[in-house]
Amino acid sequence: MSLSDLPGHVPDPSAVAASPGSGSTAALAEPERKVTARWVTGLVLVNVGINAAFFGPINIFIGQQAISIDAPSKEAIFSLVTGCGAAVSLVANPLFGALSDRTVSGFGRRAPWILAGAILAAAALLAMSGATTVAMMLLFWCLVQLGANAAYAAITAAVPDRVPVPQRATVGGLAAMGQTVGILIGAVFGAVVSGNYMVGYWLCAAALVLSVLPYLFHRNDPVLPLSARPPFRLKAFARGFWISPVRHPDFAWAWITRFLMNVGNQLTIVYLLFFLRDVIGHEDPALGVLVLTGIYAVLVIITAVLAGPWSDRVGKRKPFVIGSSLAIAMAGLILAFFPVWPGALAGAAVLGIGFGAYLAVDFALLTQVLPQAADRGKDMGVINVAASLPQVFAPTLAFLSIQYLGGYVTLFSAAAVIGLLGAVFVVKIKGVA
């Protein structure tokens, strides 16, 4: 049974029609027609579900589970589990992106991976709820990352597949809104279940499965003809994951900028639960995470939705990224030198303002430096590594900062410095204004 057989599905003619050009197909053509509100809504909801599945556990449930297993070693357990999961995402995201580029299916290229990835990640979240050892936590969280990154690689590649360049920052802003709502929903789950992380994992799994259905029923995912798929050669397939910074310098600088901005952001939030518990002395750290995440989320949504269309109108990307990096650096300094509840509130607000504008505009910038249309999924997967790698790097740097390098002042100061470097390197991009 294919997705097109499901009740209520109305095929989109643009998903199967060939685009004009010399033998090109709709799957590989540069998009020119604006996407519909219904398609964008499906895209946003997928981002909501994936980010709820990611950040509910990362911000709340894995930390609570680590405390229940071995409270004195909670930081080490948290860093081990999240770091190994992020290491899986480093491989999974570009791999599934590349596989989706080659997928010949009546579903299209991206939809099969969104469906399969959501099912795998949801099943692993359910298994995670019953994990009673660090080894079980580690295994199941890696499976969550495997499935969720398959879905994320596919839905990310769908944007350059279907969205024309003049609409990309607007769609990027709405996708960023979806990501942020997902993070907020994860925090809401954490507050609602009142420490019962088992129920929290079940809620995250349900949110993920339900979120992908609207997109799957109303996808605009052109079919790749078998004749358009190049022969598979393992050596060439593996070599394709290396994108030469000499031949494609703009792609390289965009990758580095994305990496640094995400490291700066991750360092400010990775130990938020522990920061509220151990430094600020908040009486209900999970509720505190919800409040801070709520402030962060609202401002990310506002700035993303405003900055995306603004960037499309003026046709510029880099000034928005530079301003965002300065805001992220300021948020780190506020948290470093004002480690009190009002300081945490201010830091969350400034971080939200900066990261919201960044998410909307940088996504559009990244899609404009992709080397070629046939490899959009793989290349966006490589770009997504710049967002996944900080999940390995940031917990490790955070652990070293807390345990050996001076504590939270060092941690948040490092976030500020790294954020500022993002502003430096985005200037190097020449092909995008």
TrEMBL record:
It holds the Pfam family MFS_1. Its main location: membrane. Keywords: Membrane, Transmembrane, Transmembrane helix. It is a multi-pass membrane protein. GO terms for molecular function: transmembrane transporter activity. Residues 250-433 form the Major facilitator superfamily (MFS) profile domain. The keyword Transmembrane helix applies. GO terms for cellular component: plasma membrane. The keyword Glycoprotein does not apply. It is found in: Cell membrane. Residues 1-29 are annotated as: Disordered. Coiled coil: none annotated. The chain crosses the membrane at residues 43-64, 76-99, 111-132, 138-159, 171-193, 199-217, 251-274, 286-308, 320-338, 344-370, 408-427. Residues 13-29 have a biased composition (Low complexity). Signal peptide: none annotated. This is Putative major facilitator superfamily transporter. It comes from Arthrobacter globiformis (strain ATCC 8010 / DSM 20124 / JCM 1332 / NBRC 12137 / NCIMB 8907 / NRRL B-2979 / 168). The lineage of its organism: Bacteria, Bacillati, Actinomycetota, Actinomycetes, Micrococcales.
